[in-house]
Amino acid sequence: MTLLQDIQYLADTKKDSKKDIADFILSHKTELAHLTLDDIQEQAYISKSSLVRFAKALGFSGWKAFLVPLVEEIHKESQTFSYIDPDIPFTPLDSNLTIAAKIAQVQTASIEDSLALLDEDILTRAAYSLKKANRIVVFGISPNNLLATIFRRRLSAIGKTVEVPQQDEMGLTALSLKDSDLAVFISYSGHLTQFPAQLMTYLSENQVTRLAITSQKHSPLAEACDLLLTLSAREQVVGKISSFASEESILFILNVLYAVYFSLDYKTNMDYKQRMAELLEKGRL
């Protein structure tokens, strides 16, 4: 989760001075580096002590310690998503090649954004959870379940079975999981309403390991799971041409998860793939 995403979360969920400060930061990103505490106090009618408490609530020792990484992140955001809105990345006036270039930039930036959110320890734990799981089930509604089938195919190619149940089979599948299994949930928004009621309660009671892939680390889904892999969160849930950025982020995370799992037994998995490729090739002759 980026610092800006944490600030956006406070803006969306708080109703006190934290919301006022978060709103001010998000609406004055380009000027923030040049504003002193006195400037902000005068413009936003927020006390300097409240600003310091806001910074400390986000884990910093004070406002200056908070401002340095925030300004760096704002600068990086302006570079990666410069002049291109992930939700409306092209206009009716753009040529075909311009549209192609803009889609490429949005998707590349989304991958780089998601890469910056990855944590070495969480990736390791997720990979070992895949390895030790008797069954792996990926839950998600369209198009996330379609992306999950690519992940399923990759793991199948090295002898690891993954299930991707249809939406009307999620509840039945969840009821069959045990503490030796792994449940993976994909949801950009992190809402639980897209999954059957009581599903998380059942999995928790039966000690099924749960891995969330979402853009919202404070979401109900993230808080209901044992492990969290965070997506880039630049895209809105509604009001967009298509999910160019979020789908690319999800596929990137799934590809990374597969690759990290593969690396746990690199030679064994490579040998297995080679044998399968040779057998499949013989079958074509």
Automatic annotation (TrEMBL):
Keywords: DNA-binding, Transcription, Transcription regulation
UniProt-listed GO biological process terms: carbohydrate derivative metabolic process
Residue ranges occupied by any SIS domain in the UniProt entry: 126-267
GO molecular function: carbohydrate derivative binding; DNA binding; DNA-binding transcription factor activity
Domain HTH rpiR-type: 1-77
SUPFAM superfamilies, A to Z: Homeodomain-like, SIS domain
Protein name: MurR/RpiR family transcriptional regulator
